[in-house]
Each structure stands twice: as C-alpha cells, then as structure tokens.
C-alpha cells in the first residue's frame, strides 16, 4: 500500500509540475505578444485553443514534440518587431533556441537573461538596435554554442567572461561600437566576427597600439601639410627681411 501511495504521489507531482510548466509557456508567449510592438501582426497568436500541442502550431513556435506544449525554440526573425527584450521570457523555462534577429528591438541586453533562459543553446539578437554593454553574466548561459550579437549599437568592451563559454562554436559581435582588447580565448574566431568595431584590437584584428592604415594616412597627410606650411612661412619671412627691407 505504501509503495502504491508513493507512486501515486509521484505521478500526481509530475503531472502538477508539467501543468505548471505548460501554463508558464503560454504566459511566456502572452507576455511577448503584449510587450512587443508588432506592426505587421505576425504575432497575432490566439490562446483560446487549450488542447495539447496547440501553442506548438503558432507562428515561430517549436515544441519538444507534438504531444505537449513545452517550447524548445522561438524563431521570430524579420518580423519588424520593436520594443525591448520581454521579461516574460523567464517563463519559457525549457527554451533552447531564441532567434530575434532582423528586427528593430532596442534597449540593453538584460543582465538576467541567462537566469531567464538557463538552458539556451542558440541566441541570435543580430541586426537590431540593442545598446549598452554586453553583460558579463552571459557566462551563466553555460550551454551556449551560438551567440550572435552583430549589427547592433553595443558599446564597451567584450567581457572576459564570454571567453569562458567553453561550448561556443559560433560567435559574432561585428558591426557594433565595441572597444578595448579582444579576450585572447576568442582569437579562435575569424576576423569577420569582430569587424566594424573601430575601437577593438587584439587577435584576430591588429595588435593594440598599432596604427591602422587610415591612421597612418592621416599622419602622413598632416606631416606633408605641416612641411608645406613651414616652407611657405619661411619663404614669407625671407621675402620680408631680405627683399622688402632692402627695397
């Protein structure tokens, strides 16, 4: 009897946890829908259908399988979405892939993003209007193998903590306003991953403290103009004292 009671209790607990998880995933999507501006109506999701797997058929939503409502992936790219990254993402507990690229999202990358999505494997926030620093807390996304933050307005340095993401296979911060030295462990990524940040230096870009071709051109031009100015000034002084005065 005791064994049956324990088994029944465990089954009831598992069912309760699953129910809560499903309810949270629905609330996650509702929060996204309510907090992001969607001019083209691409997120016109309806939650009236409460049958199993119903939310898995919504635009941009992928579930673990067709027999439950647990979300594994959100692909909301190129939808003209604007606003900030929604806090309701913390309710998508099982999310492993988030693609919000090619939109008009603004604001900063939330410091708690990895607490919201502790199991995220792929994160693509490229081609938006995100600003501010890359939070060092990104290291808490321990399972990341893809982190794409290119073509935003991110500033500051690349946190050393990013180099501690051991599983990272694909990485890009190109086309931002980042500065400082690239963490040495990120030198394994190609130059294209860092292009478009005028203040960045270190491998695989040029060495820190070394002048770029543009800088050298400016220095040469300034030297030539300075020399010409000196010649002209010297000629005027010579003319004044040795020609005009004698006359």
UniProtKB/TrEMBL annotation:
Question: What is an example of a Pfam family matching this protein?
Answer: LRR_1
> What InterPro entries does this protein map onto?
Leu-rich_rpt, LRR_dom_sf, Plant_LRR-RLKs
Q: Which residues cross the membrane?
A: 216-241
UniProt entry keywords in alphabetical sequence: Glycoprotein, Leucine-rich repeat, Membrane, Repeat, Signal, Transmembrane, Transmembrane helix
- Top-rank taxon of the source lineage equals Eukaryota
- Coiled coil feature spans: none
Q: Which GO terms describe its molecular function?
A: receptor serine/threonine kinase binding
Please give the Gene3D superfamilies that the UniProt record associates with this protein: Ribonuclease Inhibitor (3.80.10.10)
What range does the record give for the signal peptide?
Answer: 1-21
Question: What is the name of this protein?
Answer: Leucine-rich repeat-containing N-terminal plant-type domain-containing protein
Source species: Citrus x changshan-huyou
The lineage is: Eukaryota, Viridiplantae, Streptophyta, Embryophyta, Tracheophyta
């Amino acid at each position: 009897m005791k064994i049956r009671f324990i088994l029944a209790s465990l089954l009831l607990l598992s069912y309760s946890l699953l129910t809560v998880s499903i309810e949270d995933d629905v609330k996650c999507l509702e929060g996204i829908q309510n907090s992001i501006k969607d001019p083209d109506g691409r997120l016109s999701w309806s939650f009236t259908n409460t049958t199993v797997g119903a939310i898995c058929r919504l635009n941009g939503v992928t579930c673990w399988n067709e027999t439950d409502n647990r979300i594994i992936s959100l692909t909301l790219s190129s939808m003209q979405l604007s606003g900030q990254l929604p806090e309701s993402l913390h309710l998508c507990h099982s999310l492993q892939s988030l693609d919000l690229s090619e939109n008009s999202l603004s604001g900063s990358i939330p410091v708690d993003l990895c607490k919201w999505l502790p199991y995220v494997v792929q994160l693509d926030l490229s081609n938006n209007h995100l600003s501010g620093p890359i939070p060092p807390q990104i290291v808490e996304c321990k399972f990341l193998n893809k982190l794409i933050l290119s073509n935003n307005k991110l500033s500051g340095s690349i946190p050393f903590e990013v180099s501690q993401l051991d599983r990272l296979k694909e990485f890009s911060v190109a086309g931002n306003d980042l500065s400082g030295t690239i963490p040495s462990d990120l030198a394994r990524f190609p130059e294209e991953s860092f292009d478009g940040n005028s203040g960045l230096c270190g491998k695989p870009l040029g060495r820190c403290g070394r002048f770029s071709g543009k800088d050298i051109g400016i220095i040469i031009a300034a030297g030539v103009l300075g020399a010409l100015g000196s010649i002209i000034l010297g000629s005027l002084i010579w003319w004044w004292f040795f020609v005009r005065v004698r006359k």
